[in-house]
Amino acid sequence: MEHAELSTEQVLRRDIPWETYVSTKLISGTTLQLLRRYDHRSETHRAQLLHEDGPAYVRMFVHVLRDIFKEETVEYVLALIDEMLTANPKRARLFHDKTLADEDTYEPFLS
Among 34, 42, 49, 60, which residue has the fewest nearby CB atoms (within 10 Å)? Predict the structure, then answer.
């Protein structure tokens, strides 16, 4: 099966070695904490996290996409974003939150 044929569900079954990215300084300890809270959790749990601090999770997704180029990881984070927006399309507003004014939240999607 080619990568292009993988479903979001299949991509999200992957175990991404987030700790490796911390040890190589590609992600911060804060990003790792956010990922651990969010990754492999129920939609209900994720919805609560996004309700409480959605912009922090959007910033985390953007930073991972900007700083990590490994295909499996990029596909995984894009699948998380897809799942987040599919569950509630209004979450797209999180990408426009005023706390993200200093971030180019769309840049990783354009490269």
Answer: 42
